[in-house]
């Protein structure tokens, strides 16, 4: 990451916790100017969770779960109905990234909730597996469907990270100085911040590692400021529970729309665009691009490791970019989810003229990283 960003203008795509990139910004602030744009999947601003709702025609007693929540913490909606997983993983890191001054395009639940893996797309994907990459990605998706906890997979599983990658590629391809639209998402500017602790501020109860036990708060933070309140300590936190209510009060990780000095102007994806081809069974424009990219013969795998492993030999292949213009230099910081690996393959398959993916970083935490060079 340091070498790539030091070399010149770089775009960053974040589809996991912001820990790694926040540490980079705080450690090497002099390199911040080389980061020209950040695309990130995370948070919810005006979203309403479509999952966990009772069917309209239900005839038996039904208790809605996270239905209508801004966030998607299905295991913690009773304590925090506002956060999304990626931002909730490290709210303080996300705050540092959002408040860094670098232009950001946020793809929150507002947009990803509008592009579920519906049955039409799933079966179209099943019929488009002409490359090893497409086959791998479909099997990953099918595994998720086959192991889903209920029969609502096609209404509950969304194209979170893959869609964000598509929005990023379209932005880099078409969007000069953020003045033009995006092929896959409707966008608008909003003033938001990332909530890192809960009011009342300045009351230290042992939950906040940035303040508790420190005569001087870490990172020079302000006593009594927005970071100095109670920090949610786990999925079950008594501070977050409101007696008599099934919805909690904690907001850690909430990408909240606000006004005032804490607000940051962020470009936000609000909806996935419909397919311009009204005769197609695919209802979203991104679905078409996703299948086209994964089935490109360019940048395809060279062998089937399952069939050819007995004849395995190690060969270093270097791409030939002679007479090819290169797209924007891009770093991809992801987690270890199946969806993120699908996104990585989508980005690697995309034409190098559109995206020059230098250092995708596969990280399960801030310590262990696997680097792949394209």
TrEMBL record:
GO terms for molecular function: hydrolase activity, hydrolyzing N-glycosyl compounds. InterPro entries: Inosine/uridine_hydrolase_dom, Ribo_hydro-like. It comes from the Eukaryota. Residues 2-198 form the Inosine/uridine-preferring nucleoside hydrolase domain. Belongs to the IUNH family. This is Inosine/uridine-preferring nucleoside hydrolase domain-containing protein. It comes from Aegilops tauschii subsp. strangulata.
């Amino acid at each position: 990451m340091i070498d790539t960003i030091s070399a010149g203008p770089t775009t960053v795509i974040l589809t996991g916790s912001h820990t790694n990139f926040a540490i980079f910004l705080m450690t090497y602030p002099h390199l911040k100017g080389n980061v020209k744009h950040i695309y990130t999947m995370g948070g919810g601003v005006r979203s309403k969770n479509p999952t966990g709702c009772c069917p309209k025609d239900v005839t038996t007693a039904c208790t809605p779960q996270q239905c209508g929540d801004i966030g998607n913490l299905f295991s913690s909606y009773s304590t925090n109905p506002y956060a999304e997983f990626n931002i909730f993983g490290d709210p303080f890191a996300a705050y540092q990234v959002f408040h860094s001054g670098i232009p950001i395009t946020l793809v929150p639940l507002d947009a990803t909730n509008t592009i579920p893996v519906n049955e039409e797309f799933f079966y179209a994907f099943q019929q488009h597996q002409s490359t090893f990459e497409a086959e791998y990605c479909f099997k990953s998706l099918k595994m998720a469907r086959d192991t889903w906890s209920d029969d609502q997979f096609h209404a509950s599983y969304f194209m979170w990270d893959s869609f964000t990658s598509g929005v990023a590629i379209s932005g880099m391809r078409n969007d000069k100085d953020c003045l033009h639209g995006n092929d896959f998402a409707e966008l608008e500017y909003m003033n938001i911040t990332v909530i890192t602790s809960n009011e009342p501020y300045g009351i230290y109860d042992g939950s906040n590692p940035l303040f508790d036990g420190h005569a001087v708060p870490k990172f020079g933070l302000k006593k009594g400021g927005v970071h100095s309140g109670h920090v949610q300590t786990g999925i079950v936190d008594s501070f977050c529970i409101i007696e008599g209510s099934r919805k909690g009060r904690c907001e850690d990780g909430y990408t909240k729309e606000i006004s005032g000095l804490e607000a940051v102007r962020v470009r936000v994806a609000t909806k996935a665009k419909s397919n311009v081809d009204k005769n197609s069974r695919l209802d979203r424009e991104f679905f078409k691009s996703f299948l086209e990219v994964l089935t490109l013969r360019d940048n395809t795998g060279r062998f089937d490791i399952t069939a050819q492993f007995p004849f395995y030999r190690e060969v270093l292949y270097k791409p030939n970019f002679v007479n090819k213009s290169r797209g924007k230099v891009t770093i991809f910081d992801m987690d270890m989810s199946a969806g993120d690996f699908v996104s990585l393959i989508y980005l690697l398959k995309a034409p190098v003229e559109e995206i020059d993916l230098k250092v995708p970083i596969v990280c399960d935490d801030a310590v262990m990283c696997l680097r792949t060079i394209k």
